[in-house]
Amino acid sequence: MKPRHKRLAIIGGIVGAVGVAAALVLNAFQSNLVFFYSPSQVAAKEAPVGRTFRIGGLVQEGSVRRDGTQVQFVVTDTARNVAVQYQGILPDLFKEGKGVVAQGQMRDDGVFVAREVLAKHDENYMPPEAGEALKRAAQTNEKIGHSVMGSPK
Q1: Is 153 inside a domain boundary?
Q2: Same domain, 23 and 43
Q3: pLDDT 10s per residue in the chain (153 long)?
Q4: pTM for this prediction
Q5: Do 55 and 92 lie in a common domain?
Q6: Structural domain span for residue 8
Q7: What's CA 104's distance to the chain center, in Å?
C-alpha cells in the first residue's frame, strides 16, 4: 500500500470515528431532552403521549388524595386542570395552592403519571416556565371574561 493510500485510510478512519461519536452524543442528548408543558398545553393535546415531559402549575386546592405512598392531585394553571398520579414520598414543601413541577408521562386516559415531583423552595420562587404558563392562562381568562360580559351600555 502506498503512503498516500495509508494517509487516506487513516483520515477516513478518523472521520468515521468522529461521525460515530457525534451520532452517539446526539442520540443520548435527544433521549434525555425533557420539555415543559402547562396544563392548558396538555389539554390542547400539544404534549406528547408516551414520552417523558414536565408539567407545572399550582396544586389545586382540595385535590390531594393520599393512599399510603400513592398520591393523586390536580395541577392547574387557572385555565385548565390535569390529574396527576404519583407513587412515592412527596417533598416536604408540597402543599395545595403552591407551585409544583412533575416529570413523567401522559397515559391514554388523560392522567399524568409522575416519576418525580418538585415543589418550590420558598414563597418567592416559581419555575420560569410555570410562572409564564400561569400568566398566559390569567390573560386568556381575562379576555374570555371581557368578551362574555360585553361592553357596558
Answers
A1: no
A2: no
A3: 788 888 999 999 999 999 999 999 888 877 667 788 889 888 888 888 778 899 988 899 999 999 988 999 999 988 889 999 999 988 888 888 888 999 999 888 889 999 999 886 554 555 666 667 777 777 776 665 554 444 443
A4: 0.63
A5: yes
A6: 1-30
A7: 8
